[in-house]
Amino acid sequence: MNARILQEFRALVDRRAFISSPEELHTYESDGLTNFRALPLAVLLPKSTTEVQAIVRVCHRERIPFVARGSGTGLSGGALPVENGIVISLARMNRILEVDLPNARVVVEPGVINLDVTGRIAHENYFYAPDPSSQSVCTIGGNVAENSGGAHCLKYGFTTTHVLGLEVVLPDGSLIHPGGKTLDAPGYDLAGVFVGSEGTLGIATKVILRIVKRPECIRTLLAAFPATNEAGAAVSDIIAAGVLPAAIEMMDNLAIQAAEAAVHAHYPDCGALLLVELDGPLAEVEALLARTTEICRKNGAGEIRLAQSDAERALMWKGRKAAFASVGRISPNYIVQDGVIPRTALPEILNEIERLAADSGIRVANVFHAGDGNLHPLVLYDRRVPGQEKAAEALSSRILEICIEKGGSITGEHGVGEEKKMMMGKMFSEPDLAVMQRVRCAFDPLHLANPTKVFPRTRLCGDKPGEYTPHPLETAGLAERF
Amino acid sequence: MPANSALRANISTEEGLRGIAGAAHVRPGGAADSIAGVPGRLVVEPGSEQELSDVLRYANDAGLRVAPRGGGTKLTWGNPPARVDLIVSTARLDQIIEHAWADLTVTVEAGCTMQNLEERLAQHGQRLALDAMWPERATVGGVLSTNDSGALRLRFGGMRDLIIGVTLALPDGTLARSGGKVVKNVAGYDLPKLATGALGTLGVIARATFRLHPLPQNARTFSIAATDIAEMLHCMMAIQDSQLAPSALQLRLSANAAGEIDILFEGTLPGLEAQEAHLRDLVEPMPVTETGADVWAARQQLASLAKTEAVAKVSMLPAEIATVFDAVRRVTSAQHARWSTVMQATGLGLLRLDGATEQLHAALQELRAVLERGGGSLVILRRPSDMAPLDAWGEAGDAQPLMRAIKQQLDPSGTLNPARFAGGI
User: Fold this and answer.
1) C-beta atoms surrounding A286 within 10 Å
2) Is B391 within the bounds of a domain?
3) Are residues B114 and B194 in the same domain?
4) Interface contact A236, partner B, CB < 8 A
5) Which chain A residue shows the shortest CA-CA distance from B201?
6) Has residue B399 been placed in a domain?
């Protein structure tokens, strides 16, 4: 990028909102997945939609790729900068613009922290339901990009269920407002398509969120089982009994040990534990709780604890929410995996993971959103031991392949990003991916928005599948494949 | 084209389609085969996804204009298509492919009726938690394409929130899958949501996978009589702001009858008892009576009666319901029209207007303006056949050019349902 364009970018934002010195750029070289790193040419921190539009217009005119970024907590390299591109950080667009309690809507800018939404409405007994473990630092804009989940999406649904409307700066700098505060606006559900598109369709600059009334009663139960098989059977029986808890989480022994070492959650030392949370009207919850307790006992739970206070409940959750970071206590390096299986395949895949771990000598700690079959195997290794990193990566990939074989998914909530784009071809056929690309071309014909992510190879709009032929734009020198 | 060569073209098209779907499954369109008043020339019923894909490619190559059709319960929805050369019926694609009951998911072909699906799911104590209209005829594909939803939307969301995977047949014959069979999945774009409510303008839904919910152990419905709309809204908002957890909450109201609020609780017996007591406390002194499940058929009844009337889907902010219906009262009175409505607490509802055609035309336009000013919408589902042209959809917003670009990408020849959708798509 030449100096003239850099100068032009610099003039679009406040002086301190333009970063181009190499030492400062290093802050932005990766997201939560630190094994991918790249330096952008510059980082811009706009503070309004107009500034975002102005920046994107320059990108469009000069064919400069851009990557939008929230807090950079993503775990799939989605916010990894693109070389020869810029990063647009939405961190300064962090205002809650409107709280409309009668209609249960909140309108926010993308840089608002997830937990701050609930913080603003908690005194009125409302909350914002999607609760990724990083919710105290991650942004709503990032949640929109990744369609973030969290433990409680079993009952309440993912980010996409809670996003009713958006303001989006398209990759040519124009502005659209898909969805809205009311439901079912005429036309295609573009808000639905945008959520979870990992920054490849544009930049959200405003988000209309649905909020939820806090239930009358929340009960959290911890049940200790001899092994994951028994815990898994209990989960199946709970679901089969027609109980829909707000959350069902499972941790295996290694994950429990890590959590204990890190946050002293007072978890029992057992083969597997379940955290089950039920919420709703008091009498309803009490009835379902009795049922759930009985099911846990029947499946061999030794100790069953019911949180007696908010503090105790918070502590039970703290161990679970800190699970990823805790693993650092028991292993110098680890890979956080995110795969999904039909829940009934849980025993099979756990046995398979155990076998793979034993064969390769690599330890795996398991944390699951057990209610919806979302696995987070934590593959532990020591980079200093020759060959271990490779073996860990191989094992981690193998787990995903098994997820696909079982009819599941390569990602339940962390996104494809940079990390898993090569797995997309294993989960989807070439025509499936080509149709997604056609949708992308409608939004971003020049492939400027996070161009290298999600899909296994960049296909310029107008490409026919099959043998590589240069695109007319390439021949004309107007575009290149990133 | 001279008449005899048009006839020849017709015959050769029919032959081509017979070659794909079999002679028994291609026929000329009859009186019942019209789409929003436009007669369909031919009807084909493919018997497999592959046949569906082949039929579409054939039609697309031959420059035919195609209207997909499920049970045919909502053919009046949307604008009249520019032309209907071929109706592609999903009637033979009616299989339930996999009910993974222990995983609470089902994969079903588009032509399966909602009722058949419901019955099959009930064998394992489960349901697709969406109360569509005319379930004995309406198909999964049709309900998805029209984005119909009823009272249960309050608790369980609409089709967009329940669908987790889709196979779409595009006009060029591509069979594209997106989403998957598991509830939690963020790999790739969410095309199930793009197909939902697209009224068959982007592709034909061949099959879909849904997340399911357990059937409630018990359910009880209560109704509360109210004297006017302000009181109804006040009561509805109080319920919404309470810690009651209704599965459905609707308002029934018309020009010349007192309004009723219906509320549905589902759950355990002790849970229901406690909620009933809480409800009675909350709305005191309004009278609460236990009624039957039939009140939840009010929406379908309202939409079914219309022959000469107009029926519209209205969307507004829940807190604006009283203001909007004051306007409805004002406008209909000026136009000498009668009205009735079933409004859900989500802000979605059906509005029926009855009166002279010309005056209905005016009333619909005026009410659309009222709703759009408040950020809502009015979509006409049905109108008297002699009504002057009026766009069924209204304002589709500043994303219209992008919507057209998506249509262009997936259906570049404009094969599917041309002009039937919002923004002239």
Assistant:
1) 18
2) no
3) yes
4) yes
5) A188
6) no
Reported pTM:
0.95
CB atoms within 10 A of CB B2: 7
Q: Do B36 and B107 belong together in one domain?
A: no
Which tokens is A59 given? 């990108």
Same domain, yes or no, for B269 and B331?
no
How far B317 CA sits from the closest chain A CA (Å)? 6
Q: How many CB atoms lie within 10 A of CB A12?
A: 18
The pLDDT tens digits along chain B (425 residues) read: 455 666 667 778 999 999 999 999 999 999 899 999 999 999 999 999 999 999 999 999 999 999 999 999 999 999 999 999 999 999 999 999 999 999 999 999 999 999 999 999 999 999 999 999 999 999 999 999 999 999 999 999 999 999 999 999 999 999 999 999 999 999 999 999 999 999 999 999 999 999 999 999 999 999 999 988 999 999 999 999 999 999 999 999 998 788 999 999 999 999 999 999 999 999 999 999 999 999 999 999 999 976 779 999 999 999 999 999 999 999 999 999 999 999 999 999 999 999 999 999 999 999 999 999 999 999 999 999 999 999 999 998 999 999 999 999 999 999 999 999 999 99
Look-up of token digits 């006009």? B171
Domains and CATH numbers, chain A: 3-89 (3.30.43.10), 96-213 (3.30.465.10), 217-330 (3.30.70.2190), 331-419 (3.30.70.2740), 429-475 (no CATH)
What stretches of B179-240 show up as alpha helix (H) in DSSP? Answer: 191-195, 229-240
Angstrom distances, CA of residue B31 to CA of A25, B38, B43 = 69, 10, 12
Instruction: Name the residue range of residue B257's domain.
Output: 218-293
Burial of A467 (0-12, 13-18, 19+ CB in 10 A): exposed
Q: Which residue has the tokens 């005829």?
A: B137
Angle, helix A282-298 to helix B269-283, in steps of 10 degrees: 170
Which residues in chain B are contacts of A189 at CB distance < 8 A?
160, 193-194, 196-197
Task: Please check the confidence at residue A101 and state whether its pLDDT lies above 60.
Answer: yes
Find the CATH number of the domain harbouring B278: 3.30.70.260
Nearest CA distance, A87 vs chain B (angstrom): 22
Angle between helices A282-298 and A228-240 (to 10 degrees): 140
In a domain, B373, yes or no: yes
Residues B83 and B49 in one domain: yes
Domain CATH number, residue B339? 3.30.70.1130
Single-letter code of the amino acid located at B238: A
Mean pLDDT of A450-474: 67
Mutate to test the interface with A, among B127, B159, B184 (most CBs of A within 10 A): B184
In chain A the first and final C-alpha atoms are separated, in Å, by 15
Q: Looking at the predicted structure, is the pLDDT value of residue A462 above 90? A: no
> What is the per-residue pLDDT for B306?
66
Look at chain B and report how many structural domains it folds into: 4
Chain A contact for B243 (CB, 8 A cutoff): yes
Question: Which among A282, A409, A436 is the nearest to B274, CB-wise?
Answer: A282
| Model ipTM value | 0.96
Using the beta-carbon criterion (under 8 Å), do B377 and A189 form an inter-chain contact? no
CATH, residue B67: 3.30.43.10
Do B241 and B345 sit in the same domain of this protein?
A: no
Asked if B244's CB is within 8 angstroms of A281's CB, the reply is yes
Last residue of one domain, picked from the residues B31, B62, B89: B89
Question: Which residues of chain A are within 8 Å of residue B125 when distances are taken between CB atoms?
Answer: 242
Distance from C-alpha of A368 to C-alpha of A159, rounded to nearest angstrom: 19
Tell me if B79 is assigned to some domain.
yes
B405 touches chain A (CB under 8 A): yes
Q: Mean per-residue pLDDT for A392-408? A: 95
- From B147, B181, B214, give the residue that closes a domain: B214
**C-alpha gyration radius of chain B:** 22
Whether residue B207 is found in the same domain as residue B101: yes
Selected residues 193-232 of chain B with any CB under 8 Å from a CB in chain A: 193-194, 196-198, 202, 213-217
Report the SS3 class of residue A211.
coil
